[in-house]
């Protein structure tokens, strides 16, 4: 079953211009633990894309250090993307597993739209930092449609 994983970046500092905000120490730990969880759950991604914001890039790097990825890049447009943009990007993927690291409320909104109605409650009010929405579906990425995916939520709380 193909899988799309949508990730909200880990915990970030607040005292910087928004696009430049780095991960906190707790955020770096969260990102590493999220990478470990995704390595256990998924292992290999055909495609992985990250927002170009510093906190997303740092989360992405921590995940990439722990999983295998065939094709990875940064997408400047993810910083301002809405849920439809994220879904459209995912529809361009191929292979068995894709990863997108981005921002709230876009990540939870895209997950909400793609999830089956019975799975939506867990993301209806947004998601915390270092949360992965694991969406399973039948068919090809190009066929992703609202309500077509099973949804599991992996939350990595800060420990510091």
Enumerate how many helices there are, as a single number: 4
Sketch the major β-sheet. Answer: 6 strands, mixed
- Quaternary state reads single chain
Order of helices and strands: EHEHEHEHEE
Q: Helicity, in percent?
A: 25-40%
GO molecular function: phosphatase activity
Protein name: Histidine phosphatase family protein
InterPro entries: His_Pase_superF_clade-1, His_PPase_superfam, PGM_Phosphatase
GO cellular component, one term: cytoplasm
Descriptive keywords:
single chain; 160 residues; alpha/beta; 6-stranded mixed beta sheet; 4 helices; 6 strands; globular; His_PPase_superfam
Provide an overview of this structure.
One of its GO terms (molecular function) is phosphatase activity. It holds the Pfam family His_Phos_1. One of its GO terms (cellular component) is cytoplasm. This protein has a 6-stranded mixed beta sheet, sandwiched between helices. It has 160 residues and is an alpha/beta fold. Helix 3 crosses helix 4. It has 4 helices and 6 strands; from the N terminus they run E-H-E-H-E-H-E-H-E-E. The relative contact order is 0.24.
